[in-house]
Amino acid sequence: MIEQSPRHGYEIITAIEERFNGGYRPSPGVIYPCLSWLEEMGYIAVAPDEDALKLARITPEGEGFVAENRSAADALLTRTLPADHRASAPEEIVTAMDDIKLALRRRLAACDHDPAVIEALTDTLRRTAQEISENIK
User: Fold this and answer.
1) Residue 47, strand partner residues
2) Residue 39: which H helix or E strand, with range?
3) pLDDT tens string 37-65
4) Statement to judge: residues 15 and 32 lie in one domain
5) How far out from the chain centre does Cα 29 lie?
6) In a domain, 36, yes or no
7) 3-state secondary structure 88-103
8) Structural domain count of the chain
């Protein structure tokens, strides 16, 4: 998307949401780390625009990377949501799913991938998934 035109992070979030007809909106916690990574790799340059907002522009290295990976980049731009995507779920369920993902990320970061913690989390998630499946009428 940055190859097509320079963009601010919130413009990328909005463009992705529009591409999925409102069914998916990436969080700033997804987009901004990706932009930082792209900048660290030298694929984009981020600089303030006339309003002092960070604007990402593709670099020659980024253009080369996209050119080398054109088919994968094009495939990303044609993705659609699966029919069973969470966009059809009630908001409280979507929020709870997001809460679980955040809790897992925080716990994994805090435990330094301790095998015992990973096993305990895996068991909890599998039991929860089974309980949810069994309670469907």
Assistant:
1) 55
2) helix 28-40
3) 999 999 999 999 988 899 999 999 999 99
4) yes
5) 8
6) yes
7) HCCHHHHHHHHHHHHH
8) 2
Q: Give the angle 98-103-108 at the CA atoms, nearest 5°.
A: 130
Q: At 64, which CATH number? A: 1.10.10.10
What residue type is assigned to position 78 of the chain? T
97 with 78, same domain: the answer is no
Strand residue runs (E) in the chain: 44-48, 54-58
Q: How many residues does the chain have?
A: 137
Query: Does residue 83 surpass a pLDDT of 80?
Result: no
DSSP-assigned letter for residue 90: -
Is-above-0.85 flag for pTM?
Answer: no
64 and 118 co-located in one domain: no
Q: What is the pLDDT of residues 85-117, one digit of tens each?
A: 666 678 788 788 888 888 888 898 898 889 999
4 is a domain residue: no
**Mean pLDDT over the full length of the chain:** 88
Is 35 inside any structural domain? yes
Q: Give the domain range for residue 99.
A: 89-134
Residues 13 and 74 in one domain: yes
Higher pLDDT, 56 or 134: 56
Residue 45: per-residue pLDDT: 97
